[in-house]
Amino acid sequence: MKVDINGVEFSYASNAVLKGITFGAGTGEVLGILGQNGCGKTTLLKCMNTTLSPCRGCVTVDDSCVQEMSKKEIARKMAFVTQTTNITFPFTVYETVMMGRYSRIDALGHETEKDVESVYEAMNETEVLKFADRYIDELSGGERRRVMIARALVQEPEILLLDEPTLHLDINHQFDLMELIRNLATARNMLIVLVTHDIVLAARYCDRVILMSRGEIAAAGTVKETIRPDNLRRIFEIEADVTEDDRFGMSVVVVGKADRSSATREEEEIPQHVRHGIRAENTSAEDYGICRTDCVTKFKSANAIRGYGSQEEDR
Questions:
Q1: How far is CA 6 from CA 25, 77, 236, in A?
Q2: Which of 27, 143, 148, 297 is the most exposed place for a label (fewest CB within 10 A)?
Q3: Cα–Cα distance between 185 and 71 in angstroms, integer?
Q4: What's the pLDDT tens digit per position in 172-228?
Q5: What is the secondary structure of 231-276 as a DSSP string?
Q6: Cα-flanking dihedrals φ and ψ of residue 242, to 5°?
Q7: Which domains are assigned to the chain?
Q8: Quick count: other Cβ atoms within 10 Å of Cβ 67?
Q9: How far apart are CA 37 and CA 313, in angstroms?
Q10: From CA 263, how far away is CA 214, in angstroms rounded?
């Protein structure tokens, strides 16, 4: 299985959030997407799972455009775990995880033995089986996050998209959850794409990293190639010591805030084609779809229909 993001662009009204994003990824790896608030990380995930439609470009899974797939087909290919748990009714953990089987259950909604087995397997894998009969609103934030991952796993996806999976967790639970994510990628041979602000955890657990800045790919590659002091200074405006650790891979120690003028100067020295990300060979943004004016018009129309309000959340 392979995923290709080809020249993806997206705008909220007149605000361009994604600008020609192009990269590819495959099974068995953990791909981290990092960047400051508002750089387009979450918007990119939403374009990947069709919550949002790109203005230009396309996302393909095994050369099939996700925009042309049905919701059920997409749910069988990829699962998306958001930053927050949007369950307000007192469902049990078992019932919550079973909700993830909607794309696999027959048209009459009958649960089969396979559905039940899948739910128990996912709960065991994420270590929430002991909470099966507990109500989800009785669990801690870290426990609920694991339940949401279990619900995603019962979709049997090839791709798992995670938006800030360690958000609001204390430090030991952050490491526990990242260990789980790393193990899932290996055991299930699935692609895991996660958005995070945590450079330390990304350096330790990701196979590859994409650093975003102002809606563009500022750097992409292995952890060693991307999480370097000069990139962290330029993109995050921080000073950090980055070393190779025999036990944990790359080790990052944030020293403090960088001098803004030096960070700006370094960015100006980066060649334009590197600063603007990685684009497929012999292609341009024009090869990938409709113009920005059409995108803005469609977005405004969609908002009017759906009743969307402000888009001030972290993108």
A1: 12, 18, 26
A2: 297
A3: 24
A4: 999 999 999 999 999 999 999 999 999 999 999 999 999 999 999 999 999 999 999
A5: HHHHHH-EEEEEEEETTTEEEEEEEEEPPHHHHHHHHHHS-HHHHT
A6: -120, 120
A7: 2-306 (3.40.50.300)
A8: 14
A9: 9
A10: 14
